Each structure stands twice: as structure tokens, then as C-alpha cells.
């Protein structure tokens, strides 16, 4: 099957639906009405809300992350999410559906690595209320249980204390420091490397070699 943007989006939506509908998820997360957020794929229909939120969150995001702030940039941005190597997810409030933030599962590598990098951004109107903590917790479980990855990495600038606390609460461990790692807002910026792994050989992805 050709992996067009529409089919990639449909595949991500189907994976998320399957993950979120599991009985084990509902039981371990408490009653359904206690879950304040859900995950869904970013779609072209999110353009206006997304661009407005990015513009409203300029001071919150700078200099930690550069996100599309025009309709043209947003539509081009969506093209990177091919489902197989990268997925863009919206953290949406269950009450009303507004976006509290976004989570990106990037650089998905299969074979012996079974690894991806995770990035995320909160939006100013709902920041500081714990929505991104709930959303990232869901995304980590989605990556390990549905996508059957073994390892997630998060690269975070040392001064981004809120983001560092967020991954630490999720169980990520600090593995090192990478000078001038990513080009953000016109500069090559240093990052701390954090990672989380799981070991469930009975649920390994079929691309993992037998030995």
C-alpha cells in the first residue's frame, strides 16, 4: 500500500484508536471520566487552532522549540509525519477537544534498535495544569505498547527546567550531554540526553531479529 499523507494519517489514527480502546488502559488509568486528555493525530483541520496557539505561546516556547506559526508552515510540517518514521500527536482535552499541546514521536528506527525520539510542546492557554504530564504518560505507553518500541529518547536544553522535570517524572534517566546538538531559533543549542526503555520480548515488534 502506498504511504500517502492520507494513508499515513489513517494508520496513525487506527493505531491510537486501538491503543486507547484497550481494557487494560482503562483499568490501569482509573475511571474514564478521570482522564482529562486524550491523544489524536494532528490533521490538516487543526491548522487554524494550531497556528493560533503557537503564536499565543511564543514566549513559552522560546527558545526551547520552533514550531510552525503560519498556515503554509503548518501544512508543510504535516508532511513529515509518515507514520512509519514520525508521528505528530495532539494532546486534546476530553472536555471540549481543545489542544493543550502536541507530542512528536520522531526518528523511529526498527531492526535491532527499536528506538524513537520524543518531543513535546505545551500551549500557553492551558499550561501549568498537568495536561502535558498526562498526555506524555499516554504517549509513552502508546510508543511501548502499541508501536512496540524498546527505547524512547528525549533531548532537552539544560535551561528548560519544566521539560526536564516532566521527563524525570515519567521515569526517564539522564544519559549524557550533547553540545550544539540541534539548530533551534537560529543557534546550535546544547541538549541533555534522557531515555526510557522497556523490556517486553513477548511483545517485540516483528522487525526485531530473533537473535
TrEMBL record:
Signal peptide: none
Keyword Transferase: yes
Organism per entry: Actinomadura adrarensis
EC number: 2.3.-.-
Location of the N-acetyltransferase domain: 37-199
Full protein name: GNAT family N-acetyltransferase
PANTHER family: [RIBOSOMAL PROTEIN US5]-ALANINE N-ACETYLTRANSFERASE, GNAT FAMILY, PUTATIVE (AFU_ORTHOLOGUE AFUA_3G00765)-RELATED-RELATED
InterPro entries given in the database record: Acyl_CoA_acyltransferase (IPR016181), GNAT_dom (IPR000182), N-acetyltransferase (IPR051531)
